[in-house]
Amino acid sequence: MIETDNINQYLMEQRARLIMLLRGMGIRDKSALAAIEHTPREAFVPAALRQHAYDNVSLPIRYGQTISQPFIVALMTAHLSLTGKERVLEIGTGSGYQAAVLSHISRRVYTIERIRPLLVEADRLFKQLKITNVTSRLADGRFGWPEAAPFDRIIVTCGASEIPLHLLEQIKDDGIMIIPVDGDSGEQKLKKITWNAGRSEAVIKDIIDVRFVPLLSDIDNGDG
Fold first, then answer.
1. What domain count does the chain have?
2. Is residue 218 part of a domain?
3. Rounded Cα distance, 42 and 121, in Å
4. Annotated catalytic, 161?
5. I need a surface site. Which of 5, 62, 145, 189 has the fewest CB within 10 A?
């Protein structure tokens, strides 16, 4: 029990240190910071890497995927400008960490994953953490979730070769999409897209250089 208490105390201290670091790196959105502070990242990383849960680095999970660097999670969350009333679509559930963060400051999160075992594990964690406003599905994320559209916000946690038109069509007027997009020279830019559905126009802003795993279309049942 003493050892467990020591570990829990250590993780709490590391989480507080991370929040201070994120503030120092320019994250000012109080809602995003609070959501990260209330989401136990250690639950979403492999047990062998738990001591690194609050290091500001991406960490490997199964099937060649990663759990994103906390700074990037905070930055993407902040740029969604959430008030707690929005319905958010996430493309790329992965470990489930980003969806869990969003669940604290969204009305409902819809999240899509193409690798079945990752989705099963994420769903297990949502239940374990008593997160009830996240709905998930196994699907090709490029096509979004048409029957649940339109969404107030869309966040894509994998790199796209171009901005997917199927996703733009599922955003409400003046809605926002945050997405990493490959550039012509091999770089990848995190972009903020504000959509004007009435005029079918998008205002696109580059945020920062990033490196995400690619947005793929095939469904992987994890059979090897």
1. 1
2. no
3. 14
4. no
5. 5
DSSP assignment, residue 26? T
Angle, helix 2-24 to helix 30-37, in steps of 10 degrees:
160
Token pair listed for 147: 């029957």
**Residue 149 gets which letter from DSSP?**
-
Where does the pLDDT of residue 223 fall: very low under 50, low under 70, confident under 90, or very high at 90 and above?
low
Which residue among 31, 58, 68, 200 is the active-site one?
68
Please check whether residue 79 lies inside any domain of the structure.
yes
**pLDDT tens digits for 107-138?**
999 999 999 999 999 999 999 999 999 999 99
Percent of the chain with pLDDT over 90: 81
d(CA 106, CA 58): 24
108's tokens:
């409902």
Structural domain boundaries enclosing 154? 2-209
The predicted model scores a pTM of 0.93
Does 49 map to a domain? yes
Are the C-beta atoms of 52 and 18 separated by less than 8 Å?
A: no
Q: Where are the alpha helices (DSSP H) in 164-214?
A: 165-168
pLDDT of residue 1: 39
Q: Which two tokens stand for residue 143?
A: 């096509």
| Residue 216 included in any domain | no
Quick: pLDDT tens for 205-221: 999 999 998 888 778 77
